[in-house]
Specification:
Blueprint lengths: L19 H14 L3 H12 L6 E5 L2 H5 L7 E2 H5 L4 E5 L6 E5 L2 E5 L5 E3 L5 E2 L2 E4 L5 E8 L2 H10 L7 E16 L10 H5 L4 E16 L10 E8 L5 E19 L1 E5 L4 H5 L7 H9 L4 E3 L1
Parallel strand pairs: 1-14, 11-15
Antiparallel strand pairs: 1-8, 2-7, 3-4, 3-8, 4-5, 5-6, 9-13, 10-11, 10-13, 11-12, 12-13
Length: 292
Amino acid sequence: MLESAGERQIVKSLHLKLPHSIWDALEKRQLATGEPIYHIAREALANHLEIEHNTLFQVSTSSALVEGIYRGAVTIGHLREHGDFGLGTFEGLDGEMIACDGDFYQVRSDGTVRIAANEDLSPFAVVTRFQPEESFELPECPRLDALLTELDRYRDSANVFYAIRIDGRFSTVHTRAMCRTSEGVPLVVAAAHQPEFSMRDTVGTMAGFWSPQYTKTIEIPGYHLHFITELRDAGGHVLECSGSRLRVQLQQVNELRLALPENEEFLKADLSLDPGADLDSAEKSQPKKRER
C-alpha cells in the first residue's frame, strides 16, 4: 500500500529466541563465508519457504560492454528464469531492454517498441525478482537530479545494490536508444551516434538499479534507469525527466550472480582497463533529440 509523502514502508522485522545449536550453526557459517547472520537466516527461510530471495542475475560485465563485446550471451527466455524486472541491451547493442511485471521489451533506435521474444539474445542484462521493501510518493520531481537525490535518502548503504521502480505521470522524459553496432566498436564511439527522444505528459514506468562504485568493472555504478510508457509504445535509457506525485518503490539486493560469456570475443578481450570514464560518457551523452 502506498503511503503518504515522506513516510516509508519498512520491511518487517522478526525477533525470536534460537536454541544454541542453531545459533552455533549460524556463527559457524558466518565465520566460513563472511556473510552477516541476518543474511544467512533470511536466505535459509527463503529457501525453506521456496521463495526466491533478493539476488541480481547479471549477464557479462560493464568492462566487456565498454570494449565493444556485443555478441549475445543468453536468451531472453533464460533471463525470465532469473527475474521479472530489470534492464539491459540486445545482441549487437540493438536498442534498450526494459523488463517489468515479467514482460521484456526492446526499445529500438527508431523509437519503436516490441515485445522481446524468448529466443532473442542479450550481451548484457541485469534482472531480479522485484519484491519492494519500501515505497513512497514523490510530490514534485523538477528534474532527474532531484529524483536521484531523493532516492539517496532511502538508501541506507553504499555497499549493496538497490532495485528501483518509479511509476506515474511524467511531465517530460528524455531518453536514448542505442543503434545496432558492429562487434568491437567501443561503447563510447557507439554512444556518440545514439538517437534521443523527448516525451511530454506521458504515463509510464522507470525500472533500474543503483550499484556501488566498487563494482564499476562489473556493473554500471550509480543509478541506471530505463523507461517505458504505459502504452508500451516509447521508452529508452533515461537521461532526464520531470513529473509529480510519482510512486517510488525500492528493494535492497545483497547477492549478485554473474554469468560470463563463453564466446571468443569475451575470453580474449583485455578487460583490465578502468571503464569509468567511458561509461560515464556513454550514459550521459546527449545528441539531437526527437519529439514523441
